[in-house]
Amino acid sequence: MTERAAQSALVASLLARFASEFGGSRQEAVFFAPGRVNLVGAHLDYNGGDVLPVTVDLGVYLAIRPRDDDRLRLRSVDQRDGIDARLGELGDARRPEHGWAAYPFGVVRGLAERLPERGFDAVYGGDLPMASGMSSSAAIEVVTAYALDRLHGLGLENRELALICHGAESRYVGVQCGIMDQFASALGRAGHALWLHCADASFEYVEIHAGFQVLVLDTKKTRTLAGGAFNQRVAECGEALAILRMHARSLPTLAAYNEADLAHAAPWLAGVHLKRARHVVSEMQRVARGVAALRAGDSRALGAALSSSNRSTAVDYEVSCAELDAITTAACAQPGVFGARLTGAGFGGCAIALIEPGSAERVIPPVRDDFVRRFGVEPGFRVLTAGGGPRRVG
Ligand code: GLA
Fold it and tell me: Which fold, 3-206?
């Protein structure tokens, strides 16, 4: 099946579920928001640094129809049971019984002052691996915000929608993430990477040249972001920042420091604080090198930035795992691979490899064999296309 045919089949399955749950009519609309991979800039967004995500052609689809009352009825094509609530019941933070619906509910809360007191019926589905480092949660948030904006004529810009979605994830769901995923999903441009300066949420687009392809390597090891490890990294970086402010100089974010500052604060900056700060400071340089390499069409230099980022993420940031280490090492051992790194938060999920165009069929078999031999699990592979941002598709 071609990609377009697969997407049409997905939209058809959403509409079929919608009709069986809620009754079909001509008033339901279908929207799409993409996921992303991040080329380089691991865990820099919440440290006020720069990141370089690429929006992909996979994402989350939503069939939605506004209601005349205050009910919210949410379904997923992947799950039999749905989640129902009333607008007034949502509160200011996620409720455990709402499960995945906490993401759309957080968006509804974020838009509450702008929205009429009307709920909606909705079916979600998608082709993005869930909870695996490709921003499935941001895509759920952005597709919801974008759909509500369009259906109720709110006139918000995609940048504002991204900020509302970020608020949904950080305040309502409770993951202390940065702005990268929501911005990538809301502002993606086909054929481009988004060079996002998280210190002030400004950004520019960098064209992707034809000298490489991005191959996703899915370890199939799932992880949940709301779990303590992510928020623990955020807290450790906050502590490192406090140490640097006291013993080097006072700067607004961890990403604003340099190696000389770390050396200056050396007697006080040790253990995990030194490791986290060293990753952040060196990763900022890798993003600059990555952007320069992308602009120069230098796939080798870009790949080297990825692999070096991967080492720092594993050794100093400690968010890798045996599966991610093995799959990136196996990929980098293949001819035609410029570099590889985990993408997203880490702890499992997907990695990406930068490969010579057309080399996927050669690269995949040995990487798969190595992974199956080590872990007894069949990994997933997919060559990505840099797709655009959210849109109406039906
Ligand atoms: C997750 C978070 C992002 C970012 C990455 C790590 O995807 O949602 O905000 O911190 O991890 O780079």
Answer: Ribosomal Protein S5; domain 2 (3.30.230)
